[in-house]
Amino acid sequence: MSASESEKPRTEGASASEPPAGAADDRSKRAQVGFFTNVRLSAQHIKESVNSEGSKFRGSDYISIIAVPVVAVVLMAVSSSPMGLTIRPFMVMAICLALLYFIGKRIGVVRALTPRQANLVWTILVATFILGICFAFLTFEIMRSI
User: Fold this and answer.
1) Alpha-carbon distance values, 139 to 37, 81, 134 (Å)
2) Which residue, among 140, 100, 146, has the nearest Cα to 132 in the 3D structure?
3) How far apart are CA 43 and CA 39, in angstroms?
4) At what angle do helices 61-80 and 84-106 cross, to 10 degrees?
5) Which sequence spans correspond to the domains of the chain?
6) Is the pTM of this model over 0.85?
7) Are 87 and 77 in contact (CB under 8 A)?
């Protein structure tokens, strides 16, 4: 037995390839809940995660955290002013750059995920992007009918 194997804790009668006791039971309990219960429990888990980890930021994160809402408010103010039509394209570009910077500062966390988790995160991001496009089309249709 090598030194690295002797340092790993082992439970009685468990092989190295078996999951810890209770892990399979936890996964089967999570898989057996209904759709709305799953959404509620997932939202609760995210809320607890944000409450425990949401206030821990690196110093460089504050720039990206502040940039998105500031640029959004400025874009809103520019859009409501009569002179805003000439400045609006630049402000839309500024909010796009602020969002790309915000995402770019956080995308490195994906490297710490397992391939399955990274795939799930990617599909959620793509679905969210498509939902945003659908919302934009709905907004345009509502504005066109007014």
Assistant:
1) 30, 21, 9
2) 140
3) 6
4) 160
5) 113-146
6) no
7) no
